[in-house]
Amino acid sequence: MSTSDSNSQSCNHEQPARVANGWMGLVFNISLYLAVIFLIFGAKGSSLAVLLPLGVGLLLVAVTVSCGFFTLQPNEGVVLILFGAYKGTVRDSGFFLTNPFNKRIKISLRTRNFNSEKIKVNEKRGNPIEIAAVVVWRVQDSAQACFDVDNYENYVRVQSESAVRHVASNYAYDDGEPDEITLRGGSDDVSAALTRELQVRLAKAGVRVEEARLTHLAYAPEIAQAMLRRQQAEAVISARQKIVHGAVSMVEMALNELSAKKVVHLDEERKAAMVSNLLVVLCGEGEAHPVINTGTLYN
To answer: What confidence tier does 234 reach under pLDDT thresholds 50, 70, 90?
Structure first.
């Protein structure tokens, strides 16, 4: 037998179970108890030897039937198992009666949240970061959740942390290549990738992942200060580039305006001096202090 055949046979799928209406079963059960009372306390004389054992037998039947009642709230399910065999799942809310020998495993079908702990992982460029995520999930197939994994809640926890580590290692923290998705700048894309990763991992447990998003993202403490200084330096460089670009544009505009309106005729040397003075004024961090020239540029 091939491995694929073995895997397909070991996979369980949810089936609807057949159960009786609990209220009708309750009426039947009460009738049994009434019959027991009539047989035991109404038996007299020669009929005592026949009616008393019959009443005791009905009492055992009534008590056994009483063990088959159960109730379900909305978004709850019960997995029924008879002597080790899966007999189906009840998903409807209400009052029901089933075979009293069925083992009943109640399982919640409600949407749940799992908040992962902060874990340390190396991102795409090898920098250690701290990351955590929240996973919104619910049980979709109760048979897979009960029979295909040992403990589906623990399975969700372990696989969620493993998926967070794997997804984080595929993306850079920030400042990636052009059009590159990063953990810090592409939160929607990263969340979509994490959701897909989790769905693949948790499908065998009958779990549906509704949403997965990062709740914490930061550099690890040992490199946080160094990365902060790098970010500050990059911010200063970016600001300087914008300042220089703006200053050059303003100097160019000033020279063009002076030349077009013929306010003054400037040769190359005077243009160079003017450009130098304007760039100092526009790019300098401190306040400029003008110097009055009483002579000419050439003496």
So the answer is: low
How many residues are there in the chain?
A: 299
Calpha distance 230→237 (Å, rounded): 10
Instruction: Give residue 65's pLDDT.
Output: 92
Residue type, 88: G
Helix, strand, or coil here: 207?
strand
pLDDT the model gives residue 99: 93
Residue with tokens 């054992």: 53
Give the 3-state secondary structure of 156-176: HHHHHHHHHHHHHCCCECCCC
Tokens of 234: 């990059």
pLDDT at 3: 45
Residue type, 208: R
Of the candidates 245, 244, 243, 275, the one whose C-alpha atom is nearest the C-alpha of residue 258 is 275
**Residue 85 φ then ψ, to 5°:** -100, 135
Q: Which residue has the higher pLDDT, 294 or 40?
A: 40
Query: Distance between CA atoms of 73 and 83, rounded to whole angstroms?
Result: 26
